[in-house]
Design goal:
The complex is a heterodimer of chains A (433) and B (295). In chain A, 51% of the residues lie in helices and 12% in strands. Chain A is α/β, with parallel strands linked by helices. The chains are: A alpha/beta (433), B mainly alpha (295). At the A-B interface, helix 4, helix 5, helix 12 and helix 19 of A face loops of B.
């Protein structure tokens, strides 16, 4: 045989081998591996899961797995989860979890399956683990256990009415002091409008208050003790409660995201400091599409340290089919699905998705969406996932924070009394560990 | 032979009775006895999602005695109970008398009067949350329309308890009215005929005849409402979640939050058992009263 013939045959062989290898690699991941199985998903009935579950049929078609969804409001979902987990039941395979709230507690209780091996060794080529927000992955890692895969990124941002600002001669606030000055001016300019609204309901306060505390330069703990009575802590308590007391709506102590979004959407509030997840709700009906601007909460002495958290999808440690459950988690947090959820207003925890042409086209359609994405970019780069105390009893710690804020809104205590009482209870909580 | 057959009959009857009642007994054991016994057991243990279960004896109960939130919760529970009960009894009796004497009231009007208690508490809570919203609610709009100042309603630490009591009265006074109406309809007419002949006024008839004769029925209604009112939960959970601050934090709300939000099952069990004891105590007391006023 001639040299040319050998070279040609060798080249053809290598090309053929390469093609076969590629085909084999692509075919390596068998989506139908658990065909016929049923995976039970305990969902929090919020915009994130609602967006995800619009594609439920696609998952079932792709994998042949039947997805059984158990949906509840957030608190009821946790109650169901606690009941199921304390019974060590296999009723639930996959559940939604908020690492910033219950991550420490659930991890200590051993309720999460470890997703480290699954995500590295049993994911399809397209999954792109490295493309997920490393900050959110870190926030979901306790000890060396990766407890959930991030579904979204969110945090409180400031929505404000550009038309009211213009009418009252107010500039976009650049600092926390500017927010208060703007509220004061708007109150004098138009008494029918609530200048500022944010969370006042006791268990809900920590979400927005944490952002202000960090921007001002405060911290929840110092030297293993509660730090609310530090100078920065008091300043944060004073500022947050004063904004709500003097410029917030009547009855703000009962306000959480539902009331806040309703007030802003109906045009009765000039500024709303609420979750980025509420964009879809606030824009419902279209009235606020053209007269709303969004920014991360303005800077304090420590700059901007926005709260950035995300819901995660976790596999139950008591599931009898964690591999099949992982298939659903993998699919739900894949780039393709997160891209589809993004155009429904669910901010993706993948920077690459944020740059996807289809998503950018959706973003570019409305100025308010561009601002929303810009605010989320700040959350993604500078965000802190600390909401409440970084202890196992985080949910209980939020109650003390909320109580202190409410004591000040209702003028039931001075700042010194409010923070001292909170610190006393919180130190006891911290010591419990 | 006959005597042997007769002796076997009671045994067979007993066996038949046992077989027929077995499902009910099993149900009672599974659904009532077991949860209660298990809760008692949990109350003697430190049991949270993150702790290994450990026996602590009366540790949870001594924590309860020293817990300021428990005593505050007990106070809120009793205050809400007393206020709601009085309002519901007074309004319920008035409504019952109205329905009893107003023969020409159309059926659908009667149904409308008594419909609130058929509404799920969650629906009622959400409805009133919107109506009583200090900014956009209809209640303040109406107050201001007649020249009265707006109220903070559920957002006021002072007015939250009376407001919740009013919501519950709106929902359950018709239920009391139905019970009292049944009692009114069973009163002997001869007593009223005799009173009429003696020239008794309407007020005297009501005070000296109707009310004393209705007492057993009123006490029955009191017992039924007491069980619900001492376990106040739905309306508060939907509207204020125990706030503002802890102004409406009843024992049931507190126990629920300790168990399901803070995941401290052992302590929550102790709290709930204490509340159960309070409810039992009230029921036993009113039961004795019912015996005392029976005729």
């Amino acid at each position: 045989m001639s040299k040319t013939s050998y070279a040609t045959r060798a080249a053809i062989t290598f090309v053929a081998l390469g093609a076969v290898t590629t085909a084999t690699h692509a075919a390596d991941f068998d989506w139908k591996k658990f065909q016929g199985k049923t995976v039970t998903f305990l969902a929090n009935n919020n915009p994130v899961s609602q967006a995800l579950l619009t594609y439920k049929g696609d998952f079932e078609k792709l994998t042949g797995i039947t997805l059984k969804v158990d949906g509840y409001q957030e608190q009821q979902m946790r109650q169901r989860l606690v009941t199921v987990m304390n019974a060590r039941s296999d009723e639930v395979d996959v559940f939604m979890s908020l690492p910033s709230r219950e991550g420490e507690q659930f991890a200590a209780a051993g309720w999460y399956a470890d997703l480290s091996a699954f995500s590295k060794n049993e994911a399809s080529k397209d999954y792109d683990l490295a493309g997920l927000s490393q900050a959110l992955l870190k926030a979901a890692t306790f000890g060396s256990k990766l407890t959930s895969m991030p579904m979204n990124i969110e945090g409180p941002i400031l929505y404000y009415r550009t038309d009211i600002f213009k009418k009252c001669g107010v500039e976009q606030p650049a600092t926390i002091k500017d927010v208060e000055a703007a509220a004061q001016k708007i109150k004098a300019c138009d008494s029918t409008i609530t200048p500022f609204v944010s969370r006042g309901l006791k268990p809900a306060v920590a979400y927005t208050f944490s952002n202000m505390l960090h921007n001002i330069g405060g911290s929840y703990m110092a030297n293993g003790k509660s730090n609310l009575c530090s100078a920065k802590g008091k300043e944060a308590l004073d500022t947050y409660s004063r904004l709500l007391r003097d410029y917030g709506p009547p009855g703000v102590v009962n306000y959480s995201f539902q009331q806040i979004s309703a007030l802003y959407r109906t045009g009765r509030a000039a500024m709303s400091f609420e979750s980025s997840n509420e964009l879809r709700t606030v824009m419902e009906g279209g009235e606020r599409l053209k007269d709303t601007a969004l920014v991360p909460f303005p800077a304090g002495d420590a700059g901007q340290v926005p709260t950035a958290i995300g819901w995660g999808m976790a596999v139950s440690a008591y599931s009898k089919q964690p591999d099949a459950a992982w298939y659903f988690v993998q699919w739900a947090t894949s780039p393709e699905i997160q891209k589809r959820m993004a155009v429904q207003g669910i901010a993706p925890p993948r920077p690459a998705v944020a740059n996807d042409p289809e998503y950018r086209k959706w973003i570019d359609e409305e100025p308010v969406r561009k601002q929303w994405q810009a605010a989320l970019d700040v959350l993604a780069t500078k965000g802190s996932s600390e909401v409440g105390y970084p202890i196992v009893a985080n949910p209980e710690s939020r109650d003390f924070i909320g109580q202190a804020v409410q004591d000040l809104i209702l003028k039931q205590k001075t700042i010194d009394q409010a923070c001292a009482d909170a610190d006393k209870g919180l130190d006891a909580l911290i010591a419990q560990k | 032979m006959a005597s042997v057959a007769n002796a076997a009959r009671p045994d067979r009857q007993r066996a038949e009775l046992a077989a027929l009642s077995a499902p009910a007994v099993l149900f009672t054991l599974a659904m009532i006895a077991f949860p209660v016994v298990y809760t008692v057991w949990l109350g003697f243990h430190a049991f949270s999602s993150t702790e290994r279960q450990s026996f602590v004896g009366l540790g949870n109960y001594s924590k309860l005695v020293a817990d300021g939130e428990f005593w505050h919760g007990l106070w809120v529970t009793l205050a809400l109970y007393a206020l709601s009960l009085v309002l519901q009894l007074v309004l319920g009796i008035w409504l019952a008398l109205l329905l009893f004497h107003a023969k020409r009231v159309p059926g659908f009007v009667r149904s409308l009067f008594i419909s609130p208690f058929m509404m799920p508490p969650v629906v009622a809570g959400l409805m009133w949350l919107v109506i009583l919203d200090p900014s956009i609610g209809a209640a303040n709009y109406l107050l201001q329309a007649v020249g009265l100042p707006p109220s903070e309603w559920l957002a006021s630490p002072i007015w939250v308890i009376p407001t919740v009591a009013l919501i519950d009265t709106w929902q359950w006074a018709p239920y009391v009215a139905l019970i009292v109406l049944g009692g009114l309809q069973s009163l002997p007419p001869s007593v009223y005929e005799a009173a009429q002949i003696d020239g008794a006024s309407a007020y005297t008839t009501f005070r000296r005849i109707t009310l004393p004769l209705l007492l057993p029925t009123i006490v029955t209604a009191t017992i039924l409402r007491s069980v619900d009112l001492l376990r106040f939960f739905d309306i508060i959970y939907i509207t204020t979640q125990g706030g503002p601050g802890n102004a409406s934090n009843t024992l049931n709300i507190y126990g629920f939050r300790v168990g399901f939000e803070f995941f401290n099952i052992g302590y929550a069990s102790a709290l709930m058992l204490t509340l159960t004891a309070v409810v039992f105590g009230a029921v036993l007391a009113f039961n004795r009263l019912r015996g005392a006023v029976a005729w």
